[in-house]
Amino acid sequence: MSASVSQRKDLLVREALSILQQAGVEDASREAYLLLEWVLKKDRLAMLSLLEVGAEDAARYRHVVQRRAKREPFAFITGEQGFWTLDLSVSPETLIPRGDSEALIEALLECGPERNKELSFLDLGTGTGCLLLAALAEYPRAMGVGVDIAEGAVRLARHNAQRNGLGERARFMVGSWAEGITGPFDVILSNPPYIERDVVAQLMPEVEHYEPHRALDGGDDGLEAYRLLCQELPRLLSATGLAIFELGIGQEEAVTQLAESQGLRKLRCHTDLGGVPRALVLARS
Ligand code: GLN
């Protein structure tokens, strides 16, 4: 078909669908549609009544479909990901926020302090800032610090704070875990790297080839970051403070033991939507 004339939307989407399916993209039909919606900057309703796509837009669409067919994550193509109540910008400098991590915010709301108190939050390995910013959005008088070892992540997190009207209450800094941080904090959040090193190479192509391994690789047993984090808790947590850590599958017992060896106890472990124990809540014993 000539590239200079407009093209029928249904044929274009069908072509994309078959390319994405062949590439092994899981939810190919939804993504074929959503990528077109994104290219055209139209909402769902406007899309429904659309019959033709202009030649230039069709070419742009084919280009992003090719990128997605190489298994580049959808969120890196659009630069956007929703998390909790927030719209966040994402980049290859950080993990893409996952729905599973929202379990940490649910756990915070369930076990955490009163919503209207003046509180201090800390997020270690903040990435896009998703956990800290979602927590601050729920606690209108809290202030928070987010730390990440990647400068690009810190820049992105600052941008996300501004974008969501939380810039006044969130500070982001470059650092290795809690080095140089003093506290005390009422809530410490972290989604550390927790995948066993050997397993990182077996993740879905979207994750393995595009997301930063530094944010995934938890060392030989997947627990390296938790060892460091648990050691820091006694010095950083306030007397009544809570630490809420994201867990990988099957890590609840091992991480609880690491915390117990530092004088902490498990308050509860909140499951994600798939029923996986995901958000471990710790307090001083
Ligand atoms: N949940 C991520 C994944 O399975 C891993 C995140 C992490 O290591 N913290 O890809």
TrEMBL record:
Its EC number is 2.1.1.297. Residues 12-79 form the Release factor glutamine methyltransferase N-terminal domain. InterPro entries: DNA_methylase_N6_adenine_CS (IPR002052), HemK-like (IPR004556), N5-glutamine_MTase (IPR050320), PrmC_N (IPR040758), RF_methyltr_PrmC (IPR019874), SAM-dependent_MTases_sf (IPR029063), Small_mtfrase_dom (IPR007848). The keyword Transferase applies. The keyword Ribonucleoprotein does not apply. Belongs to the protein N5-glutamine methyltransferase family. PrmC subfamily. S-adenosyl-L-methionine binds at G125, T126, G127, T128, G129, D148, W177, N191. Methylates the class 1 translation termination release factors RF1/PrfA and RF2/PrfB on the glutamine residue of the universally conserved GGQ motif. PANTHER family: HEMK METHYLTRANSFERASE, MTRF1L RELEASE FACTOR GLUTAMINE METHYLTRANSFERASE. Substrate binds at N191, P192, P193, Y194. Gene3D superfamilies: DNA helicase RuvA subunit, C-terminal domain, Vaccinia Virus protein VP39. Pfam families: MTS, PrmC_N. One of its GO terms (biological process) is methylation. Keywords: Methyltransferase, S-adenosyl-L-methionine, Transferase. This is Release factor glutamine methyltransferase. It comes from Saccharibacter floricola DSM 15669. It catalyses: L-glutaminyl-[peptide chain release factor] + S-adenosyl-L-methionine = N(5)-methyl-L-glutaminyl-[peptide chain release factor] + S-adenosyl-L-homocysteine + H(+). It is an enzyme of class 2 (transferase). Residues 108-198 form the Methyltransferase small domain. The gene is prmC. GO terms for molecular function: methyltransferase activity.
